Amino acid sequence: MLKHTTAKDLPAHMRLTEDQTTELADMFRLMSDPSRLRIILACLETPVSVGDMANQLGLSASLVSHHLRLLRAGRLLQAERRGNRVFYLITDEHIRRVLSDMVDHVAESVPDLEA
After folding, report:
1. 84-106: pLDDT as tens digits
2. The model's pTM
3. Where exactly are the structural domains of the chain?
4. How far from the centroid of its chain's Cα atoms is residue 34's Cα?
5. Residue 71: strand, helix, or coil
6. Is 36 within 8 Å of 71 (Cβ atoms)?
7. Which of the 8 DSSP states describes residue 33?
């Protein structure tokens, strides 16, 4: 009996087209800016408005709005209108899991390797 092969059965480097690989690289590029990464992480658990995000992160609202435009275009964040305010959140569970795991990884205490 032949086993049906799905994309997930393939090695990671064989699952993406050239265009998808470029899209993934662009996502990492967007997250490489510390301010943008802080904005993304602010939206990790709960939707946040531009004003609240600016206050929490100590950034101007116009800078936050500029970064949010890029992050939305890169499909890392989504906007949700509630009345006259717009809230930003991570709706993709894959992105949420990856970022949460990376935060946990960086936050782990690193044993002293020289001991």
Report:
1. 999 999 999 999 999 999 999 99
2. 0.82
3. 34-105
4. 12
5. helix
6. yes
7. S
Token pair, residue 6, equals 């799905």
Give residues with Cβ within 8 angstroms of 99, minimum separation 6: 40, 41, 44, 90
DSSP-derived secondary structure letter, 43? T
Task: Say if residues 57 and 49 touch (Cβ distance below 8 Å).
Answer: no
Q: Letter for the amino acid at 34?
A: P
What distance in Å separates the CA atoms of residue 6 and residue 35, rounded to the nearest whole number? 37
22-42 residue pLDDT tens = 999 999 999 999 999 999 999
Name the CATH topology of 34-105: Arc Repressor Mutant, subunit A (1.10.10)
Residues in the chain: 115
Angstrom distance (rounded) from CA 99 to CA 13? 21
